[in-house]
Amino acid sequence: MNSFSRKAISVGLVFATALWFAGSSFAPLANAAGLTSNQVSSILALLQSFGADQATINNVNAALTGQPVTTPSTGGSTSCYSYTKDLTLGAKGADVTALQQFLNSKGYLTVSATGYFGALTKAALAKFQAASNISPAAGYFGPITMKAVNAACGTVSVGGSGTIVVPSGSGLSVSLASDNPAAGNIPVGTSELVPVLKLNFAAGSQQTVTGLVINRTGLSSDQDIQNVYLMQGSQVIATNLSMSNGVITFSNGAGLFTVLAGQTQEITVAVSLVSTATGHTYQFSVPSASSVTTLGGATTGGTFPITGNSLTSASVANLGGLQITNASAGYAADGSAKVQVNAGQSQFNVGQFSFLAQNQAIQV
Predict the structure, then answer these.
(1) CA 46 → CA 33, 106, 108, 193, distances in Å?
(2) What is the DSSP letter of 295?
(3) Helical H runs in 132-222?
(4) Burial class (CB within 10 angstroms; exposed 0-12, middle 13-18, buried 19+) of 196
């Protein structure tokens, strides 16, 4: 080993020791040390062999090459960058810098952020895409990769409703949906399923929810409620299996519903009320993180309790109805009555009905 190589390794050891044990900030050392790129690479390889984390290696590399270094955060999670455009080879600017910093934090890129999208950034992005099952893993930063980066970083945009926190790793996050029912009246004594609470479930990796506990509060009682339902869109996916003292429990070991990785699923809690419950007040909520259970026991995040608006039950006398009249069948295209249809005959009216909406517009 020549004296210059020994000098490089010596500088690396001293630098690493100062970093790990003194906790001091970095200063650019390239001019003082007079190191070549090969010697810098030797120092970085030495740090890797000692088990240094990627952030440390990146900062050592930056300091030895005269680049700005990143001051370690002492608390809280790093906020995610809001990307404004697609990125490819030759791109420059703040979006590229943010992407490079993200790839650095995940260990895919081992050089400092420069704001220029070059071959190393493309290769690092392709590795991230392959690990995230994005095909093709070509190193182009478009909408699909942007969504994956946002999910891995910690947030994902959901259009006009703002931002939903999506935990990185295997967690699940719960929040109040933007279209949660507003405060107001809800009908009693009908077969209608009345939405009372809408929740967003966002997953860092695919999660199957097996249990959900909902609390009912207000000037009301369990006897007011005929049944409680979980709905995915317009589909009922579960009915209440247990209700006692204002605690409503849904449970299914095989899964109530599943949230795909990096996605958000809206779930509605709906009720039907008995006709005698007029004038009572209701508020429904998810009381705590432990109220949500999943296959595998993933951590659940959110700001608890997650509480819907106050609702008041009311008797409604003019509920809409639909009357079906004038049913008839067996008419040919010329309007003549027939009692049978011959083989090959077309334009034969097999049924005719009149629908009359009562009290309000009705959707059939």
Answers:
(1) 17, 20, 19, 65
(2) T
(3) 143-153
(4) buried
Residue 16 exposure: Cα atoms within 13 Å on the Cβ side? 23
Under 8 Å CB-to-CB from 207, ≥6 apart: which residues?
170, 172, 201, 258, 259, 294, 295, 296, 298
Give me the residue label for tokens 């490819």. Answer: 88
pTM (predicted TM-score): 0.48
Q: Pull the structure tokens for residue 282.
A: 């209701």
Walk along the chain (364 residues) and give the pLDDT tens digit of each residue: 444 444 444 444 444 443 433 334 444 444 434 567 777 777 777 666 555 556 667 777 777 776 655 544 333 334 467 788 899 999 998 889 889 988 888 888 888 889 999 999 999 999 999 888 888 999 999 988 988 887 776 544 333 333 445 454 557 889 998 899 999 999 998 878 999 999 999 888 888 999 999 999 999 999 999 999 999 998 999 997 678 999 999 999 999 999 888 788 999 999 999 999 999 999 999 999 999 999 988 888 888 999 999 999 998 766 667 777 765 666 555 656 655 777 877 776 666 778 787 777 777 7
Measure the CA–CA gap between 109 and 122, rounded to whole angstroms. Answer: 10
CA 284 to CA 281: how far, in whole Å? 10
Q: Which helix (H) or strand (E) holds 286?
A: strand 281-286
User: Apex CA 105: angle with CA 100 and CA 109, to 5°?
Assistant: 50
What are 105's two structure tokens? Answer: 């934090």
What are residue 251's phi and psi, to 5 degrees?
Answer: -150, 135
Q: Which of 312, 210, 226, 308 lies closest to 259, judged by CA?
A: 210
Element (H, E) at 307: strand 306-307
Determine the Cα–Cα distance for residues 302 and 220; give it in Å rounded to an integer. Answer: 27
CA–CA gap between residue 226 and residue 45 (Å, rounded): 68
Three-state SS at 258: strand
Tokens of 216: 């009912």
Contact 222, 243 (CB under 8 A): yes
Strand partners, 227: 272
Give the Cα separation of 319 and 104 in Å (integer).
60
Collapsed DSSP state (helix, strand, coil) of residue 227: strand
Distances in Å between the Cα of 177 and the Cα atoms of 100, 145, 248, 302 are 33, 25, 20, 12
